[in-house]
Amino acid sequence: MKRIPGSINESEHKIRMKLFSCRNLIPSVLIGVFCLVLAIPVNAFSQSSSIQVRLPGGESGLLETRSGMVDLQSVIELFDLRSSMDVLGERLDLVGARGSCRLLLQSPLVLSRGLFTVMSGPLVDLGGALAIPADFLTKALPTLTGRSSALKDQTLTFGRPGSGRFEGQSPDDLSRLASFIRRDQYVPEDVLKEGPSGLSVVVLDPGHGGRSPGARGNTGTVEKELVLSVAEKLKTRLEEGLGIKVVLTRTADYYVGLKERTAIANNNRADLFLSIHANATFRRDIEGYETYYLSLGSADKQARSYAEMENRALGVQGGEDDKALLEAILWDMAQTAYLQESSELAAMVQRRIVGELRGRDRGVRQAPLAVLMGASMPAALVEIGYISNPEQEVRLNRQSHQDRIAQALYLAVEDYHRGLLRGQIKRGQP
Question: Comparing 20 with 430, which gets the higher pLDDT?
């Protein structure tokens, strides 16, 4: 078996090549003919072709293509990549000799080096095997191999070692990409079918991300990392415990704009939107938990100050123009129809997180939080603790404590779900 020389030397890159002979093809042809004769149905990958791979030095190999897509396993084997998929089978990480990238099932987006690129189609599961669009080979593969690549007439050629670049876009540009909405907004057919009167789809919003780190603790704890960890734990619990679809507004450290966060919830036809944050203040002795739901104005001065701080962190400065914009979003969307449900959701979240974690109850409050505006479903924001408090920051960094937070939030969502099923919570009618 020949190997493709890497960016520095052949032994360092270890890019594996497959060479097929006519002898290997004969059994496949015979099996195919036999299946046709017997009228045995074959899977979506039965009709395959290949892409010829050529590198400087004369090495060559084949990549299998099936149903117009490239068989991902042949890419992994050919280029000696390491792969890892999350337990839910939704997120795939690929690692090569010179870099890594992340793919999402049913999404056209590829994430690498803090940037995004959009393929011509999504990563899909066809006949039990994963397949990717051919332009993955030119858009994302170079960052894994360290070589630039070009695909023409079913032939893939590579440039010199070190020429590979990930030509991605900043996460700030995602709002201009019409196809980005497919990243975490794929809705399976079973969700679209009419189901029970409880929750079917929940959207969790890990606060901040990317260029917006959020609050910082005294020992270096960063809010965006902490809340993403808790959101991922909560997602797993909800999917396993309630059997519902759970979508995260972000699945890694990238920035998602305010409109995109609620757009993800609206496009998924979510029944509930929960934004997860961590708090901080100049006073190191303050600790506890608090939960917010939306109002344009607030008689609570502290709640208004908090909203202004959070909105500034997300790029809304709070001037007259911004106020007019937020007011238009609030009243043009259907959120006002869900204020009663949002208040019930917030109360359940606050009761559970205080009861399970035994912390100070800082109450349920209304505030003009920009991240909740535009959500066409009950929405709340929970502060899971003060990372500016030394003792609470230590607890927040413990995985066991994050598990307890996730469990408390799970119980709150379960309470809401059961309230809907029992008719104790009435759905809003926008």
Answer: 430
